[in-house]
Write a structure and sequence with these properties.
The protein is mainly α. It has 13 helices and no strands. The protein starts with a helix and ends with a helix.
Length: about 300
């Protein structure tokens, strides 16, 4: 009897080669990549909201994600032979979109919520139009693959993509965490922050550049997964308060969990078919965005 139980236990824990391939080459990289993407987007959203004192400052809504998507598509169409063309072009696209949105949002009276959101909508619409035009250069197979990726797709996760995203996510989180005190003071007001010794222009440059890199690397790896940078920081602030020394690292953890759970729902909701993970995050984020806008 003991021998029988022992053999059953052994066979239960042993994995076949196909099972090992599925677990370590498909499932595990996808889960880990989803965690890195969620952490990156949540940290970027939390830092932008604090910097701009604006609860609606989220990469997807501000057009930063679309800038990264356009950069990725240009790499996909014209530079596919280069291994790291997608992340590089994606980060550059995110940076240019960020610069454009905040330049448009500035006025003599400063920056307000409505102007910032409108600038983001304009940039997003313009970049989306360019993406649609570029899709005419793709054949049917590439078009279907790129369209699904654009809506948020973790199914093409690879080990190399995960490692690159992990390095950027950790580095970006550390950099933005180091600016937590300055962001806390800037939430009170830029003039008060300046009086306390905060270098406003330096902090802006660090936050904008780091957030663009985080969004760019995430979009290159998984497409446009929207509303993560909007939902997660708000939930974290409800739990731990507004201190960015807590908000930034806890947003990274919560963002990782949120995207992994959303991807799990996307995989099993209509199995064996699969939904884009961006559709799941949008179903949760869009109602919250409307609530915040009305509030």
């Amino acid at each position: 009897m003991a021998t029988l139980l022992g053999s059953e236990k052994l066979s239960f824990f042993e994995l076949t080669e196909s099972q090992k391939t599925i677990l370590f080459d498909i499932r595990l990289p996808r889960v880990l990549l989803g965690a890195c993407v969620g952490a990156s987007l949540a940290v970027a959203g939390a830092s932008l909201q604090s910097l701009l004192r604006n609860p609606l400052a989220e990469p997807y809504l501000l057009g930063v994600s679309n800038g990264a998507a356009l950069g990725t598509m240009l790499a996909f169409v014209f530079f596919s032979q280069f291994e790291y063309a997608r992340p590089v072009c994606s980060i550059l696209g995110a940076g240019l979109a960020t610069f454009a949105v905040f330049q448009m949002a500035q006025s003599r009276a400063g920056m307000n919520v409505e102007r910032l959101v409108l600038s983001g909508v304009i940039v997003t619409t313009f970049l989306s139009s360019i993406i649609v035009l570029l899709t005419s250069l793709l054949d049917a197979a590439k078009l279907r693959s790129f369209t699904f990726w654009l809506l948020g797709d973790l199914s093409q996760a690879t080990s190399s993509g995960f490692y690159l995203t992990l390095v950027v996510a950790i580095t970006g989180t550390i950099i933005l965490s180091s600016q937590a005190r300055a962001l806390n003071l800037m939430m009170i007001g830029e003039r008060d922050a300046f009086d306390f010794g905060v270098e406003i222009s330096k902090v802006r440059l660090i936050v904008f550049a780091t957030a663009s890199a985080l969004v760019g690397i995430s979009v290159a790896a998984s497409g446009s997964v929207g509303y993560v940078g909007l939902i997660v920081p708000h939930l974290i602030r409800l739990i731990v308060g507004s201190d960015n020394r807590l908000v930034v690292p806890f947003s990274a953890i919560a963002g990782a969990i949120f995207v992994v759970l959303a991807d799990t729902v996307a995989r099993v909701a209509i199995a064996p078919r699969e939904l884009p993970v961006g559709a799941i995050t949008a179903l949760i984020g869009a109602p919250l965005f409307i609530y915040l806008l009305r509030k």
